[in-house]
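Each field is set out as follows.
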Amino acid sequence: MVLLEQDGFLVELSKLYAKSKMSGSVFLTIKRHSGPTGGAAKVGGGKFDKKVEGKDKKKAGTSQQQVGDEGEHRCIVRATDGKKAKISCVVAHKDVVRFQMALSNVLKVHLDALKKKEKKAAAKRKTKASASL
């Protein structure tokens, strides 16, 4: 996964949407990020953590929420086409509104190839009308 700056992420996301316009999907996820800016890191609760018994269990590890509360809150935004292309970026709390506005503009531009749903009610009326004649 490639960690990009916000502007670079939006450019690569546009390219990803353009590449998958005719066939394919783009998956976009936004999560709270409590690790270092270099990547998502888990603190405690990992596969190889030691098991702790009794009262020491609470003192053993720091939860992800506690680590996030020490500094500024951030979000990690990830996009993938489900195959090889995977991109991500970390957005600081103060930049979230600006980033969401820019992301919504990218989505408005590239979500024009969606198929419209067929209306079931109209289809039922046609079948009832033809059955009554």
Q: What stands out?
A: The mean pLDDT is 76. The CA atoms of residues 125 and 131 lie 10 Å apart. DSSP finds five helices and four strands in the chain.
